[in-house]
Amino acid sequence: MDNNLTAQPQGTKRKFRFPGISYNSPVVLTFTAISLLALLLAKVTHGASNYYVFSVYRSRISPLFFVRLIGHTLGHSGWPHFAGNMMLFLLLGPILEDKYGSKKMAIMIVVTAVVTGIFHLIFAPHTGLLGASGLVFMMIILSSISCVKDEKIPLTVILILIIYLGAEIVDGLFTKDNISQLTHVIGGVCGGVFGVVYWKDK
């Protein structure tokens, strides 16, 4: 009786292939890595790097002023602040980057950083702003708008607008804390604008 199966020689072991790791979202992952480095640098410099580079506040016009206008989204006050932002950033970011492309994702991040920074300078000139929460809110609203089809607004989009942006507006009016509700709202508005501008890419 013929046997077409080739017997495995004794003493040999089956090779285990570890699944490869893909750098699947270059812009989002690079942003996260730089944010982590900024957090570590802030620890080493006792917050000096956050003050000079990774936060935005009203100051005289200089090269560092323009760096801070974007760099403030990379800075965080501590690990809980960083982890809270990056959890949603890493959840939503790769989906949006895959949908709109790395170039548009980078543009949206930079534009949102500049816009939220400028609004903060105008309306809260005596305080510093740092953190990626404005970007996170931009992604929340953009990902919701991306679900809109056939010119009909899904109920989920309306609920997200009420829960996230509505809550931030109410908090901004009736509470005082160290969280910039204005940044969250402006970030969400940026996400809505990007959703309209890039509608053809849906």
Q: Topology of this protein?
A:
Blueprint: H1 26-44, H2 48-52, H3 63-71, H4 79-100, H5 102-123, H6 133-145, H7 155-174, H8 181-197
Helix pairs in contact: 1-4, 4-5, 4-6, 5-8, 6-7, 6-8, 7-8
Jot down its keywords.
202 residues, mainly alpha
Describe this structure in words.
This protein is mainly alpha-helical. About 65% of the residues lie in helices and about 0% in strands. The protein is built from eight helices and no strands. Helix 6 runs parallel beside helix 8. The radius of gyration is 22 Å and the shape is globular.
Largest sheet: none
Distance between the termini: 60 Å
**Which whole number gives the mean pLDDT?**
84
Structural class: mainly alpha
Q: Tally of extended strands?
A: 0
Concise structural overview:
The protein is mostly helical and 202 residues long.
